[in-house]
Each structure stands twice: as structure tokens, then as C-alpha cells.
């Protein structure tokens, strides 16, 4: 039986930190579904479709990854998928409390679904989509944080090119 995991997030936009977790997740699972959340609590820069297109573009050579979208509860999405594991990246102690709360809630409402936490690699421990957006909007160099396709899309959004 194939081991399949869901890696959820808002991905506004995807960064090397997310890609690091996806690539390491593929060492543990046969297949990873990157699930883009339509998270109404976040004011996104990129539309839902733009975020999905960027992830597909960046991961086009990775046959063991599919990109999907979901609305509503993550646990309902996972239950309806072929996966039974959620992957989450942990960057710092500050992520722990929030992630712990979500994983406890998910395991109590979604029986049988496990959450696997992977520590974010050291070089991405301080990274977030918001910080990349801020640096880019101020015309800073974001080469080390996002793939070239994402950099191009960000610079277009901020009318820098
Ligand atoms: N490296 C670098 N940065 C990382 C990272 C990594 N490995 N992993 C996450 N980040 C950053 C992201 O860029 C993001 O930055 P931002 O806040 O500036 O945008 C931040 O960490 C958090 O991102 P993400 O992991 O995408 O989480 P999220 O808070 O955007 O989304 C969901 C979390 C979508 C999984 C969660 O809200 C959810 O499940 N929503 C569905 C509704 C639901 O089920 N709610 C009930 C939960 S009990």
C-alpha cells in the first residue's frame, strides 16, 4: 500500500522552506499531496489559483507530488483523500504551541489521522512567506528564499519589473 501524506498550508507564496519539507517528506512517503488552503483568515497577496499554479510550476518535475486545494476543515479533506498523515514543518519554539493545538484538535475530530512534524532546516528556520513578501516589496534580494518562478511572480505583483 502506498504511503501518502498531505502537506497543507496557505503557500502565499511557496518558499524554499516549504520545498525543503516537501522534499524531505518524500523520503518518508511515496507520495505527497500539497494542499492549498483557502484560508479566509489570511489576507493573501496571490489568488488561490495563482498560488496553485506557482506550486505546480515549481514542482513540475516531481512526479510523486500532486497539488490540490481545499476549503473547510483540513481533517475533512484528509479523511476524503487517500492519505492518513498530515505533514507540518516546525520552525521554532514559537510554532509549537499553535501546531500542538491544531494537531490535538485534528486528532480528536478526525480519528485515525496522524500529524507528522518535521523540523525546518536551519537555513529556513526564520523564513516565512510574509517576510519574503516584505523584503521583495522593498526591492530586496529574495534569491535565497524562493525559486526564480516565485521571485518573478512576486516582482510582478509589486510592479518592480
Ligand atoms: N519553512 C519556512 N516557512 C514556513 C515553513 C517552512 N518549513 N512552514 C511554514 N512556513 C511559514 C509560511 O510561509 C507561513 O508564513 P506566513 O504566516 O507569513 O504566511 C507560516 O509559516 C505558516 O504557514 P502555513 O504552514 O502555510 O500555515 P498556515 O497558517 O498558513 O495554514 C493550515 C495552516 C492551512 C494548515 C490551517 O489553517 C488549516 O488547516 N486550515 C483549514 C481549516 C481548519 O481545518 N481549521 C481547524 C484546524 S484545527
Care to give the gist of this entry?
The protein is α/β, with parallel strands linked by helices. About 40% of the residues lie in helices and about 20% in strands. The chain has helices at about 15-30, 50-60, 75-80, 95-110, 130-135, 150-155, and strands at about 5-10, 30-35, 65-70, 85-90, 115-120.
Features:
alpha/beta; 161 residues; Rossmann fold; five-stranded parallel sheet; binds coenzyme A
Characterization of this structure:
This protein is α/β, with parallel strands linked by helices. It has one domain (4-125): 3-Layer(aba) Sandwich (Rossmann fold). The chain has six helices and five strands; from the N terminus they run E-H-E-H-E-H-E-H-E-H-H. The chain has helices at residues 16-28, 48-58, 74-80, 93-109, 129-137, 148-157, and strands at 4-9, 31-37, 65-70, 85-90, 114-119. Strands 3-2-1-4-5 form a five-stranded parallel beta sheet, sandwiched between helices. Strand 1 (4-9), helix 1 (16-28) and strand 2 (31-37) form a beta-alpha-beta unit. The chain is globular. Coenzyme A binds at residues 8-12, 15, 17-18, 21, 37, 39, 73-74, 89, 91, 102, 105-106, 120, 124, 127-130.
Draw up the topology in text:
Elements: E1 4-9, H1 16-28, E2 31-37, H2 48-58, E3 65-70, H3 74-80, E4 85-90, H4 93-109, E5 114-119, H5 129-137, H6 148-157
Parallel strand pairs: 1-2, 1-4, 2-3, 4-5
Bound molecules: coenzyme A (COA).
Amino acid at each position: 500500500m502506498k504511503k501518502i501524506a498531505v502537506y497543507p498550508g496557505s503557500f502565499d507564496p511557496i518558499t524554499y522552506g516549504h520545498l525543503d519539507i516537501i522534499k524531505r517528506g518524500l523520503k518518508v512517503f511515496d507520495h505527497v499531496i500539497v494542499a492549498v488552503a483557502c484560508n479566509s483568515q489570511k489576507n493573501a497577496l496571490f489568488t488561490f489559483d495563482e498560488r496553485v499554479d506557482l506550486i505546480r510550476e515549481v514542482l513540475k518535475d516531481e512526479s510523486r507530488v500532486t497539488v490540490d486545494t481545499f476549503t473547510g476543515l483540513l481533517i475533512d479533506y484528509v479523511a476524503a483523500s487517500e492519505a492518513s498523515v498530515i505533514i507540518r514543518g516546525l520552525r521554532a519554539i514559537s510554532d509549537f504551541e499553535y501546531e500542538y493545538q491544531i494537531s490535538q484538535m485534528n486528532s480528536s475530530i478526525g480519528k485515525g489521522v496522524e500529524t507528522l512534524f518535521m523540523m525546518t532546516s536551519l537555513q529556513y528556520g526564520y523564513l516565512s512567506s510574509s517576510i519574503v513578501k516584505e523584503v521583495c516589496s522593498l526591492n530586496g534580494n529574495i534569491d535565497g528564499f524562493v525559486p526564480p518562478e516565485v521571485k518573478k511572480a512576486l516582482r510582478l505583483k509589486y510592479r518592480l519589473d
